[in-house]
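URGENT: need a sanity check before tomorrow's submission.

F., can you look over the Pre-mRNA-splicing factor 3 domain-containing protein record below? I want to be sure the sequence and structure line up before it goes out.
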Amino acid sequence: MMANAKKVIEERKKALTAIKSDTGKPKFGLMDPQMIAEAEKARRIAQLQAQIQEKINAVSINAAVAAAQAHVREVTAKPKPLILDAQGRTVDMEGKEVQLTQRMPTLKANIRAKKREEFKQQLQDKGSEDIAEQTFFDPRIAAKTAIRNKRALKFNEPGKYVALADKMRTKAQLEKLQSEIAQIARKTGITTTTKLALITPTDARDDDVPEVEWWDSIILAEDSYAERSVGKVVFQGGAVTNLVEHPTQMRAPTDPLRPIYMPVFLTKKERKKIRRQNRRETWKEEQEKIRLGLEPAPEPKLRITNLMRVLGTEAVQDPTKIEAHVREQMAKRQKAHEDANAARKLTPEERRLKKIKKMKEDTTLGVQVAVFRCINLLQLLLNCLRVTVQRHDIRKSVLFVHFKCCALVLWSFLLISN
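Structure tokens as predicted:
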């Protein structure tokens, strides 16, 4: 195809040179159209032949490659002969040892498990290397891994908890026996005697004088008073400071056992509100009982002022009878009110006890007493009657103590009965 193209190009060159030789100048506009068409046709034919040749060459190359691949597959598809030497090793045709390829896991689960194991191993190796390089590494302490291990089931050995229960019962019995022995020793006094015998030295005598007293041994630097005779006392460092030790605050006998809180005083408005709420709750309960049929419905509360509004036509029919009925009902309500007040009223004896209780002092925590010293006995005798009468009135106890030169009057706030 290249040769044909070169041939066409040579022919065109010859035609051009022939035209130039005829006229002496190139005459492109005077070329024969037939020659131009033939030249174009020849160029197209050459181009088509070149394309066909390229396709033929490509097909032949592909066929050769496919044949080569088929041959390789055919060769590799055949199993290689297994040759073993005297020691059982795999060798090739020349007798050299051949390393067989190991089969790798193909399942995703097996691949993930293998990768997980490799990652754990890498972390452990890295962590151990990092910890070992540190200066404060203690090999006795096991290092925790970065990955949390799965919790596995732990099965107890049979009889484990039975042995533990037996051990606890034995310990409880031993403690009970020890407590009983301690109580018996405390009752008989053996414990106190034993402690005194341990504390008291065997060769101790009453006339022995210690080198230094126990209360001075805390602050003195030396164990004797030898330095004191010279006039120089050496104290321990930090034994004497400018701090004051305050004793623990104890509860006074007169303090109440329970805390006393200030009672809450309500205002007049708050008291009215609470009373209104309580009355409303009571009224609701009564209405509920009437609705359920537990109590009869009360009669209308009639008065002279609401007589015509409540009864209506009945009051017009017989006004005298209705007025008598209303006044009877009013008298009945007044009597019930007076009876309730009388029931709540205290009897004379109850009023007296209430007054005494109000004046009486709480003596559970203590008794307050006033002491007076009288120099003038004559004046005291004149006032004895007055004091006696007054203490009966205010329910106080008075005690007169007479000495040679004076007299004492003990005025107690303790209430006594007649």
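My own read: The mean pLDDT is 76. The radius of gyration is 65 Å. If you see anything odd, call me.
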